[in-house]
Structure formats: structure tokens, C-alpha cells
Amino acid sequence: MFSRPSARRGRTAFAALALAGALGLSACGGSAQSASPASGSSATGDPVKGGDLVFAEVTPINQWQTQNARFYEKANVLNSVLDRLTYFDPEKKELVGWIAEGFEANDAQTRFTFTIRDGVTFSDGTALDAAAVKANLDALGEGIASAQIQPNVDFGAYKSSKVSGNKVIVTLSRPDANFLRSTSSVAAGLVSPATLKGDNAAQNDISKIVGSGPFVYASQVPDQEVKFTSRDDYAWAPETAANQGAAYLDSLTIRYLPEVGNRAGAVQTGQVDLARGLQPVDEEAVSGSGNQVLAVPGLDLTANMAALRVGSGQLADVKVRQALGKAIDRQSIKDTVLSDSYTVAASILNHGAPGFVDLSSDLAYDPEGAKALLEEAGWKVGSDGIREKDGKKLEITVTSSNNSVVIKPAFELIEQQWAQVGIKLVNRAADNTFLATALTDPKVEIFGTRQFAYGGLGPVFGPETNTQTLHTDAERDALYTKEQAASTTQEHVKLVGEEQRKLVVDDAAILPLWDEVQVYGAHAGVHVDFTTGTAPIFQGAWKSES
Amino acid sequence: MPTARYIASRLGQALLVIWLAYTVVFVAVQLLPSDPVTIFLSTDGTPSAATLEAMRHQYGYDLPLWQQYTNNLLGLLRGDVGYSLASGQPVGTRIGSVVGSTLQLAGGAFALAVLFALALTIAAVLAPTSWLGRRLRALPPFLASVPVFWLGLVALQLLAVRWGVMSLFPDGSFLATVVPMAVLALHVSAPLAQVLLKSLDGVYAQPFIEALRARGVGEARILFAHALKNAAPPALTVAGVTIGTLLAGSIITETVFSRAGLGALVLQSVTAQDVPLVQGLVLLTALVFVVVNLLVDLLHAALDPRVLRSTRTQSASALAA
After folding, report:
1. Is B170 part of the contact surface with chain A (CB cutoff 8 Å)?
2. pLDDT tens digits for A407-430?
3. Which residues numbered 90-109 in B keep a CB inside 8 Å of some CB on A?
4. pLDDT digits (tens, 9 = 90+) for B119-139
5. In terms of Cα–Cα distance, which of A543, A539, A544 is closest to A87?
6. Other CB atoms closer than 10 Å to residue B318's CB: what's the count?
């Protein structure tokens, strides 16, 4: 919910940049180190026990309810507080057991059986057994009416579940091949049945949320800091986790660094051990000073995109949408406003995500092709260089949150690129106040974003009310349904590939920009790995210096 | 009893101002597109109509506007400022959790600003050479034009990053407490110093100063015993108005120095269209404004008794002319 007026943010960032230069802080040498998840940092040797790790997030958090954990600032912390049924292993790129020591699906992808691990307890001592899992699945699938909590969007097909010994059997109302993987999401984190009975406020209050994870809430200073202590008896890490026991760290402190210009300095001086949201201009200073720049790919998310609101009228014609795509020079975005930590997108899924297909040849920069398409669509260049048709200017607006440090400068560059083919972009990126209404306003033509997607693209782009395109399409919906009913991995991957081609190339409903990556700065000596959702795994983290 | 009547009339005005601010904000928030419940629930896809309806009902957003307004106002009279949806807490609790931080910052900054302004003014007036005096007089416009966030970032980069003598976070240490205050104070001191200097010029142009000099009274004594007291009222009025600058400045200062506070809360509440929280914050701001200006007016009256008489007869400005 946190935001600041975008103009001020821009100026602040610029000032910080100018300042860093003036003070000679952009130390020479050193380039961004690209980290694959689970092999995050360069600190080596045996884990060191003890200590407090200070993690700087970008914004204070007020709503901690599980279903709200589709935002980095919440998921990054809750990942270490709430366990899940399954875990998506970043190296094997497959689902492994966690609280469910076993799981299986029927061929029709409508019935799933989870075998619940023995001996797991919540931090208040109550058992995380099959009954507790069922209570959580019901809350995720149906929402909690008494607390006005909505269902988890990935549980759209959920019908019911029943307990049988140490097993929970979930029945879906329609096939969903992506259901299993969505149980690995932080937004499917398990809380104690007592927590589920609280009202909306209680379920969003970190001091009242009881989980079974490796860290337990200890104290907070509102809007400044939250402290967690590690749980000594934690012994149920994901099947493939290197550390199967309690966290090495004694405690974890979450602080907020809303000012992007302060993050590099905080890491360099060791005032924080880990900071999210390093801006590209600060990467060299951090790595050059012997500290770590960790670029963590977000395989659980889509690539960063300009999602087009087809229903806005201006973008109803597919030729216009395709022209917008051809007029974007993605490589120049990377070279100008991003860094070596970033990869130009080749599809709506990231390179390395299961089912990714390379569409880069369809995403080539072709301004002449864009102009030709716009001419064909009847948009002629007006006296001011902006195209018009039936007296209407080709002027479109983009909205986005300020969660990404690079999205605003990226759209500033796209604004220039589109101007060259006669399209005017009104850049409202990173303006959270505008986003609050623009998110559900189909008249705002473009939403710059990335979303969690656990397999197929149906949950992100399928529903009539999806905030990306605010639009649905019968052909694409049929494809999502077919993909969700795929009974073999091979068939599923093939259909996920078709979804990408249809969305990106045929319909041009979304324009992929760059792969999702979160760039962290870590102080020298900090060892930390990350999930495929880019969340730090504090249970396995340690500091080699104390 | 002119003083009692004066205070009563000012208190009445103050209550009117607070009620008006409260009402205007209620209406203004209603004019915004979207609504707090939709924003609250739209974190991930558009919520179902049934969930929206249930939540609107739960928090009374489905009532007719006049009824919401009356309920809020009645609640206010009982001391209940409402419930903040976006923070999941009563408004009073939410504001209470961070108000101390802002009061400390703004209070400290104000005290430092007055000190800066006084020191600068005295130095400029008593400067041994006119060259130095002119340079000192040029400082306030310069300070007014230095953006708070820039100064804050420079201070942090030097003190916290380069020299490592200060924490980037509000850890309670001396520098982490005083530096944000000083950064904000420099900005706020500029208009105070400007007005005080200008006002002193007017006082020094009056014949009694020449008379004092003719009697052999020293410059320092003229300044401290006579000129400052006469020049103070306009600066006092400006000091009352700087409350706004202090609050606006604290939004930026709090962000740069990672401090909790009202500034960040104002932004959160407006973004989320959290009506009760916005109203609570406006109420608090209006209250502070009114109290500070009341104090300023009373001090005015103490410094210059003509102000009290003017409530019945003529305006103070007419008398001063």
C-alpha cells in the first residue's frame, strides 16, 4: 500500500545518482554477479551458527494475511514464517515434498492426495496435521467469509477436501494441472486453525499470525522494524533443503529502506546484511566494494510486461497492438536503463521457467513494420507527429506500481521509442496513487507488471476480471481449459507453449519486456539462497563474519 | 475581561475550523473514483461482488452518505475516530503508533529552526563588516531553495556511508536523532530568518533607534533589549504557519531517514482511500494548526496589547500604520 508521488521519487533517485557520482561512490570495477536461485551468494565454507541478519525491504507491511502474500515485500518475509505443502526446487525445477511428504494427482487432474508429515507443530504448540491442512485448504479455496478474505486465485477450481488418516484428499470442480505447484506459493502458506478464526484485522496482524515456519514473530516498531527469532525445534524443511534443521541464524530483523538511494550504502557499510531493490546504477558500487550483487530470477512469475487493456477501444485493433510491440527496442532498454543483471524477455514466461518457448524472433525491433501496421489500421500521422484516426489521437496511458526500481525509467524510454512511430505514451508508471484506481479501470490502456504464475497462464490472464488485460477471449479461455486438463507433463508443456504464442504473438495482448529478476545487495560474508519466487531463504542463511 | 472574551472567540473559531476541515475531507474523499473496500480487496484480481458487499456492510460503507457522515461525527464526539481498513486497526491506535516519532522530529526541528533563525539574524545584524552582513543576509533564500530530500541524502551519504559515524536507521543514537531534525530545521528556519530580518529593518528605520544610539546605547543592547521585541510579531506569525512546512517536510525526511511517522501514513491512507484514517490525520493536523495559531495569537497579544483592543475597535494593522 505504500507509495510516494512519482515525480518526487524520480527526483530523489536522480539526486541520489548525481550524489553518488559526486562523492565518487561508484567505485570502479566489479560487475553484477548473476545468481541462480539456491546458489545465491558467493560466501563459501561451512555454515556459521548464530547472529542476527538484518534484511531491508522497500516498504512497510500492514497486511500479512496469507492470500495477500502475492507481493514481494510480504512473501519475502512470510516465506520464513509459513510453511507450505510443497516446495518448488530451484535446481531440479520440480516440485518436492515439504509439509506434504508425498503428493499425487489422478490422470484427470481433478483429485489430489497429500500425505501429511508427522510431528509438525505450529509455534503455539498445536499440531499441523491433516485436519489443520484441510482447514487451510478450505480457506484458500473458498475464502473466509466471516473475515472478508477472498479465495486464492490459483485455487479457482477448488471444490472440497477431506481428511483420511494422515492424508488430505482435494477434489477440484474442473481439471487443473497447475494446482499442485500453486501449493508451493507463499500465498498458500499454512497458518494455525486458530489464526483462521480471527477477524480480518487479526488475520492481517503479524503479531497474531501463528505459523509452523523456521522463524517466529518476536516484536515490532510499527512502520520501522519487525523482529523474528528462529525456532529451535524446527525440523521439517523442504525435502531438498541443505539445512534440514533449525535456522543457523538466531534472529532476523526486517527494516524498511523506502529511499532507493540509501540501499547500496546500507549494504556497503554492513548496516544491513541484505537489501532488496538495488537500482542498476548502484550495482557496480556494491560489487566493486567487495560486497555482493545477487540477481535472483523469478521463475514463479511472468516476465515484466506491458499488459494491454483490449477493451479500452484504442487498442481493440490487433494491428495497433502488434505495432506497439514492434516499436519497442528491448535491447536498448537493457543497455540504457537496466544492467547485466537483467535479461531481455523472449516470451511472457522467463527463460528457464518450465514450459518457456523462445519467441524472440517475433519480438524483434521493427519500427518500419510498426509504422506500416499503423497505416494499415488507418492511423495517419497528424501535424504534431502523433497519429490520429477519425479525429482521435493515438494517445495511451501506462500505470504501474513503484515496486520495481526500473519500471519508470523503462517506460520513459519506451515513450521515446513509441514517439518515433507516432504514438504518444502518457507515463504514469510507479505512481501508486494513480494505480489504486487505474488497476481496475479498462480506460487505462496499459498495465506494466509481472504476476505470480504457477505453470499455466490461465489464472493470470483468464478471468474476465483479471487486472492485466481486464478482458477475456473465448479462444484463449478454451486453450487455458485444455492446458489445465493436460494429463501428461509433455502435453502440458506443449499447451503452455501454445498459450504463450497466442498471448504474445497472435493476439499481442501483452508485450513482454524483460525477464523478472530481483536484484539484491548482500554484505560480504552473507550466504543466502532464494526461492523461485525470489524470496530469501533465511532458514538456510548464515553470516561468516560476526 | 478582554482577554477571556478574546480566548473564547478564538476557541469558537477553532472548533468551526476543525469541523469544516472534517466535513470538507469527508466530501472530498467521496468524490474520488473507486472506494476503500474495492482498493483493499483488489490486491490480486478484482474481488467478487459478494465479498465486496460483505465487507462494505461489515464496515458500514453500504449506508447512505449522510448516515456515514453522521455516524462518524457522533463517533468522534464519543472519542471514537473510526477503524482503518487498510491497517486493520482503530484509527487512534494506528496514528498513536507513529505520532510520537513525528512529534519528536517536528518538535526538535522547530526548536532548532528558531535557534538557527535567531543566530543567523543576530549574526547578520551585529556583523562587524557590512560585507559579512550582506553575505549572511543572503543565506536564508539559499537555505529555502535547498530541497530537504537532497540535504538528507547528502547528510546520510557522508555521515552514514562515507564516514560511518551514523546509522541509516532511527536507532535512537544521538546523530540518528538530531541529523534528521537539523535537515528539516535548516529548511524551516529560512522563512523565519527572512521575516525577522525584514521586520528588524523596519524597526531600525524608526526614530527611537536613532534616539537610543544618540544616548550612547550599544548596538547589542539595542538589538536584544529593544529591536528584537518589536520585530518579533511578524516572525511569530510565520512560525505558526511553518507547521505546514514542518509536516510536509517530515514526509520527505521520514522517507529519507527510514523513520516511521505521520508523513508516510498520510500517503498510505490517501492511496488506499482509507477514509477514517485520512479524516483522523486531517483532524489531528487541523487541531495542531489551530492550537499553534491560537498560541501565536495569544503571544501576539502579550507582546502587543493593541491586538486585544483591536477586537473591539479597529484592526491592529490600522493602529500600527
Report:
1. yes
2. 999 999 999 999 999 999 999 998
3. 97-98, 101
4. 999 999 888 888 888 888 888
5. A539
6. 10
Tell whether pTM > 0.90: no
pLDDT, tens only, A267-322: 999 999 999 999 999 999 999 999 999 999 999 999 999 999 987 788 999 999 99
Annotated domain spans of chain B? 1-86+308-321, 93-271
DSSP A457: S
> Nearest to residue B138, comparing CAs of B219, B100, B192, B194?
B194
Which candidate from B44, B51, B156 shows the least CB-CB separation from A70? B44
* Residue B158 touches partner A, C-beta closer than 8 Å: yes
Cα A137 to Cα A191: distance, rounded to the nearest angstrom: 10
Between A238-252, A329-343, B243-257, the lowest mean confidence (pLDDT) is in: B243-257
d(CA A273, CA A291): 10
**In whole angstroms, what is the distance from residue A500 CA to residue A506 CA?**
9
Nearest to residue B50, comparing CAs of A437, A67, A150?
A: A150
Q: Tens of pLDDT along B260-301?
A: 898 888 888 877 778 788 888 888 888 888 888 888 888 887
B252 chain-A contacts, CB cut-off 8 A: 8
Which residues of chain B have a CB within 8 Å of the CB of A225? 169
Percent of chain A residues topping a pLDDT of 70? 92
Instruction: Please give the sequence-ordered ranges of beta strands (E in DSSP) within A339-467, or none if there are none.
Output: 380-381, 387-389, 392-393, 395-399, 424-428, 446-449
A 10 A CB-CB count for A264 gives 28
State whether residue B84 sits within 8 Å of chain A by CB: no
The residues of chain A that CATH labels 3.40.190.10 are 6-296+518-543
CB pairs under 8 A between A and B: 153
- Tell me the residue type at B287: L
Nearest to B42 among A257, A268, A439 (CB): A439
Residue B29 and residue A324: Cα distance in Å, rounded? 36
Indicate the pLDDT class of residue A23, thresholds 50, 70 and 90.
very low
Whole-number percent of chain B with pLDDT over 90: 19
Other beta carbons less than 10 A from residue A44's beta carbon: 7
Residue A355 φ/ψ region, left for φ over 0, alpha for ψ in the -120 to 50 degree band, beta for the rest:
left
* Residue extent(s) of CATH 3.10.105.10 domains in chain A: 304-515
Nearest Cα residue to A308 out of A177, A453, A473, A516? A473
Separation between Cα atoms, residue B140 and residue A100, nearest integer Å: 67
Q: How many other C-beta atoms can be found within 10 angstroms of the C-beta atom of residue A394?
A: 25
Q: Residue A199, Cα to own-chain centre: how many angstroms? A: 27
Partner-chain contact B272 A436, CB within 8 Å: yes
pLDDT above 50: residue B317: no
How far B238 CA lies from chain A's nearest CA (Å)?
26
CATH number, span A304-515: 3.10.105.10
CATH of A6-296+518-543, one of 1.10.3720.10, 3.30.70.360, 3.30.300.70, 3.40.190.10: 3.40.190.10
**Closest Cα partner for A431 from B191, B270, B19, B189?**
B270
Residues 6+ positions from A246 with CB-CB distance below 8 Å: A214, A230, A231, A232, A233, A234, A235, A539
Alpha helices in A247-317 (DSSP H): 263-268, 283-288
Q: Mutate which of A150, A199, A461 to disrupt the B interface (most B C-beta within 10 Å)?
A: A150
The pLDDT confidence band at residue A470, using thresholds 50, 70 and 90, is confident
Averaged confidence pLDDT in chain A: 89
CATH class of B93-271: mainly alpha
pLDDT higher than threshold 80 for residue B33 = no
CA A166, CA A506: separation in Å to the nearest integer? Answer: 47
